[in-house]
Each structure stands twice: as C-alpha cells, then as structure tokens.
Specification:
- Pfam families: DnaJ (PF00226).
- InterPro entries: Diphthamide-biosynth_chaperone, DnaJ_domain, J_dom_sf.
- This is J domain-containing protein.
- Strands 1, 2, 3, 4, 8, 9, 10 and 11 form an eight-stranded mixed β-sheet that branches.
- This protein is of the alpha/beta class and 448 residues long.
- 26% of the residues are buried.
- The longest helix is centred in the middle third of the chain and has 37 residues.
- The protein folds into three domains: 83 residues, Helix Hairpins (Orthogonal Bundle); 180 residues, no CATH class; 76 residues, no CATH class.
- The protein contains 15 helices and eleven strands.
Length: 448
C-alpha cells in the first residue's frame, strides 16, 4: 500500500480540505486495503487506525490541523510513515521557544468533573443559609383498608354459609322425626313451632362455630402471613427511620447553633473557606465528592491519546451516575472517586477502612455496573477502579480486590495514569472494537 504523503491525511490518501464524509469513506477504504486478511500488514493497519484516531472527530481534526500549521518540518518527522522507514539519523535540537516545542497529545476529555456535585453543594448551602429547614419526621405505615376488608368479607361469608347449613340440618332433622312418627299427616302446623326452634338453634350454633373456624382459616392463610411479614418489615423500617430522624434533629440543632448570624458574605461566596468551614457535614459531603472527582480528573490528564474520558455522566433511564468512564486499549473502565480520609487498606482481597470491612461500597456499585451492561449493550465494563487520595491509602499502588464479578482495583490518584496503561487480568480489545465502543459510549451517555 502506498500513500501520497507523510501526514495523517496522506496516510488516508486524501487532501486536508476534504469533507468529513469523504474522509470517513477514505478511512474505510484504507482500512480494508491495509488489513492483514486482504493483503496488508499489521503495521500498515495500525498506522491507518492511528490516522483515524487523530482525524475521526471534528474536535480532534481541528486540533490536528492546528498542529500541522505550527510547523511542517516537525510533523513530517513526528508522524508515522507507511512503508520502509528512513535510516537517516538526526541529532535532535532543543526548541528555542515554547511555541516550537512539540505539543503533548492527551486523551479526549468530555464533561466537567465534579460539576453536578458542586452545584448540589451550592444549592444546599444557599438554602441552608437563607432558610434552614429542620428534618421531617417519618410517616408511619398504615395497612391498606383493602387488606383488612378482605379478611372481614371472608369471615362474613363463612358465617352465613355455616348458619344456613346448621339451620337447614336442624330443620331437616325435625322433618325426618315428624315423618317417622306420622305427624306430617296432620299438616305442617303441628310441627312448625319445633321446626322454628331447632332451625334457630342450629343457625345460632353455626354462627358461633364459624368464628373459630374463620380465625383458624385466617391464621393459615398465606396472604395473611405475607401481610404480617410485610407489616413487620415496615415497622422495623419505621423504627430505623425514627432513629435516623432523631440523629438528624440533633445534628440540625448543632449546625444551627454554628450558623453565623451574618450570612451575606457566605451567600456571596459559598465556596470560600469560611463558608466551607461552617457548612453542615451533610452538605459538605457534596463538595468533598466534587473535589475527589477533580483530583481524579487531574490524574487522568496524564494518560495518552489512546484514551477517551467522560466525566460526571449518567446512563440509562434510571439516571445511574458515574464519576468517570474511560475507554482505552483494555475497553471500558469505570472509575469512582472515593472520599474516605483513611486509613484504607486491602487485606485478604477485601477493602477495609479503619480496620473494618466495608462491603457496602461494592454492594452499592453492583447495580450501577449492571446499568452499564443494560444501556451500552456491548459486553459491559472491563474493569472498575476505586481511586483514593494517596494519603488515605496505606499502599497507594494498584491493588486488586477479590469477590467481584469483574476485575476491581484500588489505587492512589498519583498512580492512576500508570495503572491504566495495563491492568492485570484485563485483555486488550481490537482497534475496531474500541472504536465502536468509544462511539457507543459517546452516543448514550448524558452529562449529569
């Protein structure tokens, strides 16, 4: 395969002024030509993929065009060539100005890290400074009337059936005895009084007997047992909610006493040190999460151009949130920025905070990872990274957790970029698979 130039446009065999549609057609043509199965080579195929990675989107193409205009001599030496490489060696010279230094290509980054959490903190902080609202007490659970009426109607129905049956049996017995004694020949008037008395006593006995029978049936009813179990769960939930309410009420009173009387300076600058210092812990946690996301974003700034990053995004109809989604050579990596101050350790493949196991972290992430599989429909995430501040981890280098369906790792922020180069136990995907994955993620994510 030959090309008409040494730039990425030359690799694809087009001029720099072609339209996006023509550029895509040229890429597909060169992709088929350079593939090893159609007479090309792996090196040629890789060079074509690198060219498309630099020109595939309008933003990347514009950035590449700017680098082309910065100096053709530098780009002709830095960009890949198709075919035999030159054996001529050159002594590199140091650029004399900052404009002449080669630009470092970094990953595609989309979204605003921590943006939604900062807005949440700001809104809650302003509401607390303007009009502090005490916590609301929980509402007790009341069983539905339909459930109670179901048992009442069934009891009345059984009572009517037993009353009628016992009265009919008593009346039948009186008629049988009267027939045996020949009293029926004298007419019904001769036996109407005993007939009414026996039928009445029989009906009364049936009504009395229906009460214990109805209670026994109700106790053995599966619907009632399920209703009792559900009522006990609701009672336990209400008791826990009451305990949480009492704690929240005490915390609110403490926060209210710490609230300054002059709130105008804090309203003007809700992110200032004074505002953050007096913010209640329930509000400050949102700023902590935003800062953790921003620290992770700064660490991700050092990954190479083979990666694409989406910050602070949502997936699916349930608006499942993710701090960062990263598409790289090993597929889709889910990154969560953790706010714990430490000490956090990994012992026996499990996460421990202050010496105690914290299984709830992974339990809360599992349904969110399921949303990735359901929304993207491309095999889901390849791995998950929990990123802590270096000061929070006893060992800040990459550590793997056990007991997870997918590879899950804990790493310090300073080692994040190096860890993404090659996660252990995670296979690399083909270039066309990664391009498809990158396009799917870009199409289906929403920024929070």
């Amino acid at each position: 395969m030959t090309t008409s130039g040494t730039t990425h446009y030359g690799v694809l065999g087009v001029a720099a002024s072609v339209s996006a549609h023509e550029l895509k057609r040229a890429y597909r043509r060169m992709q088929r030509t350079s593939h090893p199965d159609t007479g090309g080579s792996a090196e040629q195929f890789r060079i074509v993929q690198d060219a498309w990675a630099a020109l595939g989107t309008p933003d990347r193409r514009a950035a590449y065009d700017r680098t082309l205009s910065a100096g053709s001599a530098h780009h002709s030496a830095a960009e890949p060539r198709v075919g035999p490489t030159s054996q001529t060696s050159r002594t590199p010279t140091r650029p004399s100005t900052a404009e002449e230094r080669p630009r470092v290509r970094r990953a595609d980054s989309h979204g605003h890290p921590g943006g939604s959490f900062r807005l949440k903190y700001r809104d809650l902080m302003i509401a607390w400074l303007v009009n502090p609202t005490p916590p609301s007490p929980p509402v007790p659970w009341v069983p539905a009337r339909k459930a109670r009426g179901r048992f009442f109607r069934r009891g009345l129905r059984l009572g009517a059936q037993m009353t009628t049956s016992f009265a009919a049996v008593g009346a039948g017995l009186v008629l049988f005895l009267a027939w045996r004694q020949g009293l029926l020949a004298e007419g019904i008037a001769a036996i109407w009084m005993p007939l009414l008395l026996v039928a009445g006593f029989g009906g009364f006995a049936g009504a009395i007997c229906s009460v214990p029978v109805s209670l026994l049936r109700m106790r053995r009813d599966s619907y009632r047992r399920e209703l009792i179990r559900y009522a006990k769960e609701k009672a336990a939930t209400f008791a826990a909610a009451q305990a949480d309410f009492r704690r929240a009420q005490r915390a609110f009173e403490i926060d209210l006493r710490a609230r300054p009387s002059n709130t105008a300076p804090l309203l003007a600058a809700p992110y200032s040190e004074d505002a953050v210092r007096v913010a209640p812990p329930s509000i400050r946690v949102w700023l902590d999460r935003a800062l953790a996301q921003e620290d992770t974003a700064r660490a991700l700034a050092f990954v190479g151009p083979r990666f694409s990053i989406w910050h602070d995004v949502e997936l699916g109809a349930g608006h499942t949130r993710f701090d960062q989604l990263v598409v790289g050579p090993q597929g889709l990596i889910v990154i969560e920025s953790m706010t714990e101050a430490g000490p956090v350790t990994v012992e026996h493949d499990s996460l421990r905070h202050g010496g105690r196991a914290v299984p709830d972290v992974l339990d809360s992430l599992r349904p969110r990872l399921a949303a990735v599989d359901k929304t993207l429909g491309i095999g889901g995430a390849s791995a998950m990274l929990l990123v802590y501040a270096d000061s929070a981890l006893l060992h800040s280098r990459l550590q793997q957790l056990g007991g997870c369906a997918m590879p899950t790792f804990v790493v310090g922020a300073s080692h994040l970029a190096a860890a993404l180069v090659g996660l252990p136990g995670v296979d690399e995907g083909a270039t066309w698979q990664l391009d498809r994955l990158r396009a799917t993620v870009a199409e289906r994510v929403r920024f929070a």
